[in-house]
Amino acid sequence: MKIFYLLLFSVSIFAQKIDRKLVVERHKVVNRSLDTLSSLSVGNGHFAYTVDATGLQTFPSYYAKGIPLGTQSSWSWHSFPNKENFMRSETYRSEPYAGRPISYALQGHKDARRDAATDYFRANPHRIHLGHFGFRILLKNGEIATTSDIKGINQTLNPYSGIILSQFSVEGIPVRVWTFSDPLEDIIYAKVQSDLLKMGRMHFQLNFPFPSQSFLDEGVEMANPDKHHSTLLRDSSKQILIQHSLDSLHYQVSIQSNQAIEESKIRDHFFEIIPTRLNEIEISVGFDSDKKRNWSQALQKNRAALIEYWQKGGMIDFGNVKDPRAIELERRMILSMYLAKVQSISEEPPQETGLVYNSWFGRPHLEMTWWHLMHFAYWGKGEYLEKVLPWYERNFIKAKELAQRQGLRGARWQKMTDPAGGESPSSVGSFLLWQQPHIIDMLDVLAKKKPINFKRKYGYLVEETAVAMEDLLSWDSLKQVYRLGPGFIPAQESLPFVTTYNAPLELAYWYKGIQVAQEWRKSSGVSVNKKWDHILTHFPSLPEFGGIYQAAAGYGDTYLNPKFISDHPAVLGAMGMVEPLPTTDSLKMKNTLAKIEKVWNWESTWGWDYPLLAMTALRLHDSKKAIEFLLKPLQKNTYLNNGHNYQDKRLRLYMPGNGGLLTTLAWMAKGQNGNKSFAGFPREWKVRVEGF
């Protein structure tokens, strides 16, 4: 009887709901120095504001080569005037695909004007940094405080509430700052308490940098003051308006306070805001939003939005796991979930560095959309994935135009793009294909919890995407199967485009995309596409050599070529990220995984490669190996104190790594709940899972 009650008690413990607040708040982020790689962000998914240890953006130049102090929004796009009247057609060049010429937007034309046109359309439009709002603190001697004057730092981000509390002192005088974002508008709020305010020594400053016109823009370029305009306006004693204009981009910054504030222009594009001499102030800064604001009400709305985010959908609690690695995995999970909420919920695909600073001119890469956003659907937060669908709807016509230019029917989706669906010229990106099925996969996952009218609404996207996929296949009369390529660069970008065909990840994804499109036709009452049935029944197997799956067909043993064991180990995605083909052998994939683990050039990998490896391990029902891959001790699998996935000195954060981690953990949770497609967590791990 004792044993019975003991078992009953044990079951009742694990049947209890997870204390989500407890799990999330185990991973508050704490800073005790001006750590340039531990900047913290607040935001709402389409707008983010990143702060230093003062709680505002006081030292942007100091943080520039760390996690920069960005203020970016989904609408903050700018183009320099096209004074040379460049035409996009000047970037096009024909290259062979499956024996026929196809038009690509490319770099390297060896023609001055065409190369200049390529440079222009590669860099325009670009996302811009909207401005820095920080402190301007006066020392006793009248000089402006620098980083060396900031002492006693104790800063905490609570991801459950989305509030940053920053405490520090200047010349022995303490300062407390609370910072958070509006849940809907492009507004940040701060409350500041300090006798420095009462002494007239703590002011605020706002400056507008100029776009750097470079691949990376950290938002600290102050050159070219004559090429943009900042106009100071006065609305009331408690509100200041500043109009910023940069060519055709115009926006207004509204600074509101609960007390009288004064303003002065220090120099072009640099303003000082001076508060009344009280020891506390509530202040808000709206970027292109001048609505009247109440600090307390905004605080309540922000908390409510974050609490709703954490309380719905899935949750995993590693608190009872004895393995010391579990707490680090939980930290990465919680902070990745927070960063996804702050950085990646918008009506456009995210860029790889989120809303912190520009990489690739701020452009989204469509092949990364799956890695950025698919986890939302698997965690029961599909509405956040749905927010990107309007981008595909708006730019469907652009995808149709690209397909037509390349001699294809249907819709051909871009790789490196912009809000208007423009195609960025690239020596690599233009040859990629694996972004094509993403929209089918995303819609299919969402449709599983939607009424039939969801398929009616988005069926044209699935259909037209699959039609272009069909046209990119050709018939191999010798082998009596279809063939993808040659003439593309696969997800493993180290392979040459001219001779590459039947790369494994692309093959598996092509099969799945066409299969799903056919299923959508059936469920919508539309007759089956007989050509698609023929494709699915005459589909090639994954290329192999010696019982090991290869990077692509026709190359023999690709593991003997150093170039073919570098970059993404994408072959594993054919039984990981994507469901395996009917002909894929799990033992051969297991041997492939072991081979890659042994010989791969790990320094050349990227942040999402470790979840990619773990996904394959899960489909092979090896959860212990999956955990090893997720926590593999390599530089590009580093998760900083603030949760960002560090890559190198260029990419100090990399959001696809965070997203891939979350998708993998969701799949492990599904395996824990009995989904036979995936392994759950290791048996000895007492993981609690709910909401999946």
Description:
The chain contains 19 helices and 28 strands. It is α+β, with helices and mostly antiparallel strands. Helix 8 runs parallel beside helix 19, helix 13 packs across helix 14 and helix 17 runs antiparallel to helix 18. It is globular, with a radius of gyration of 26 Å. The two termini are 34 Å apart.
From the helix content, strand content and strand pairing, which structural class follows?
alpha+beta
Low-confidence stretches: 1-14
Based on Cα principal axes, name the global outline.
globular
For the largest sheet, list the strands in their spatial order.
1-10-11-12-13-20-17-16-15
What is the arithmetic mean of pLDDT? Answer: 95
| Portion in helices | 25-40%
Figure out the total of helices: 19
Biggest sheet descriptor: 9 strands, antiparallel
In whole angstroms, how far apart are the ends?
A: 34 Å
InterPro entries: 6-hairpin_glycosidase_sf, 6hp_glycosidase-like_sf
Protein name: Glycoside hydrolase family 65
Organism: Aquirufa novilacunae
Short description:
With 692 residues, the chain is an alpha+beta fold. It is built from 19 helices and 28 strands.
Annotate the secondary structure layout.
Blueprint: H1 2-15, H2 20-25, E1 29-31, E2 40-43, E3 47-51, H3 60-63, E4 71-73, E5 77-78, E6 92-97, E7 100-105, H4 112-123, E8 126-127, E9 132-137, E10 151-158, E11 163-170, E12 173-181, E13 187-194, H5 195-198, E14 202-207, E15 229-236, E16 239-246, E17 249-257, E18 261-267, E19 270-275, E20 280-287, H6 295-311, E21 315-317, H7 325-343, H8 369-378, H9 382-386, H10 389-394, H11 396-405, H12 438-447, H13 452-471, E22 473-476, E23 481-484, H14 504-523, H15 530-537, E24 544-545, E25 548-549, H16 586-599, H17 609-619, H18 623-630, E26 638-639, E27 645-646, H19 655-672, E28 688-690
Antiparallel strand pairs: 1-10, 2-3, 3-4, 5-8, 6-7, 9-14, 10-11, 11-12, 12-13, 13-20, 14-19, 15-16, 16-17, 17-20, 18-19, 21-28, 22-23, 24-25, 26-27
Helix pairs in contact: 7-19, 8-12, 8-19, 12-13, 12-14, 13-14, 14-15, 17-18, 17-19
InterPro entries: 6-hairpin_glycosidase_sf, 6hp_glycosidase-like_sf
Protein name: Glycoside hydrolase family 65
